[in-house]
Amino acid sequence: MKNTKNLNLILALGFVLIFTGFIFTLCLIGRTPDFSSLIVPDILFIAGLLNFYLYLAFKKNAFRFFISINLTLYGIFSSLLVYQVINVSFSEIWPIYIFITSLSLFIAGRKTGKFFSINYDFPAISLFIIAVVFLFFSLDIIKISFTRLALMMCPLLLILGGIFLVLLFFHRKSLLEILPEKFSEELNNDSDIEDGE
C-alpha angle 95/100/104, rounded to 5°? Predict the structure, then answer.
């Protein structure tokens, strides 16, 4: 028990050093911004590292792994923008956040041990396509109005969303694996009641 606490303390100290070193590096290579603009990136980065700590020290599941990667990458990318290491405006580059979520889902899906995880890979592919489309608009590569394209794409998105929900229904066990334990138990109990009837 004592050894476990010591190891967890070492892990926590490691994450603190990573965060501190990253901020110092940004201060050296970028422009130091106002303190108020640092709040959101720092909160995202710290929340991501905290989830990584909880994932490694206590409970390992794909969903927490996804949250850890996603928040950490959000924090890193937001910090790069705030410190102007990446010298582009937010209005041009915001679809990258969707791409980060897609990448996080794909990486977390590998923790399931499956070649293709419908709960992670299908949303990852969908978000990747959406991110690319939005990036084309934000960078003015596509010249037609976004409203017109949205109206054209809306039926397709509805169909894809419906297919995803139907597939989730048939893969209920996979859905229970990615949800937090509390929700998984409730859904399992509901399922048992239905089976009993």
Answer: 150
